[in-house]
Amino acid sequence: MSDLSAAEAAARPLDGRIALVTGATRGIGRATALALSAAGAHVVAVGRTSGALEELDDAILAAGGATATLVPLDIKDGEGIDRLGGALFERFGRLDVFVGNAGVLGPLTPLAQVEPKEWNDTLAVNLTANWRLIRSLDPLLRLSTAGRAVLVSSGAAHKARPFWGAYAVTKAAVEVLARTWAAEVENISSLKVNLINPGPVRTRMRAKAFPGEDPETLPSPDDVAQAILALCLPGVQETGQLYDFPTRRLRGFMMPS
Questions:
Q1: Active-site residue, selected from the candidate residues 164, 167, 181, 245
Q2: Which one of 36, 141, 158, 171 has the fewest CB atoms closer than 10 angstroms to its CB?
Q3: Which residues of the chain, if any, have pLDDT below 70?
């Protein structure tokens, strides 16, 4: 960044950094990938669909960003996640930002009527994949001078709303997962781990859950992406906290002693 003007450096605070985003092909994930690229990061975009990843790459290039690294991967493929960590180490030697965004709504049905496959698939995507990513990416993030991780939660994690059991359980578990990770690295690494609750956002998942809702009354994924970007910056010192986007407030958690 030494050859950048002060204004350019301020506009590109992630210049030269490597940022991985899961669920990067649509919604909040896509918007976050674009925001990170605009801030100067080289984006490693993880998604299931090659065509959608290529469209994201085109959008990044059109906005003036660098070519992204595209990773077509089903997030339920644990061995694929393991290989991803090794490949990133061989190519970059570290990882600076990890945004765990990929998620599914799962069945909106009474707990007693949830099919085992639906339950297992929801846990696999929303929870187990994030644990597997932590297992694969933690060593790379510790090699960064300012590793930053942001996992996407939901307001459902704090409510016992009828019919939302599978989704809510996974998001509550993701919060404990992130807080535990933050506590484990707090005193031995510069890595900061935080969560974000996007709240109601104009996404395909939201439309599926609330089909009668007017999407134009909701914030856009781009709005949430800017909040996620802020949590990814090297100057962030908070860790183990939840940023509540609807109220624009950080909610701290008691860290284990």
A1: 167
A2: 158
A3: 1-9, 252-257
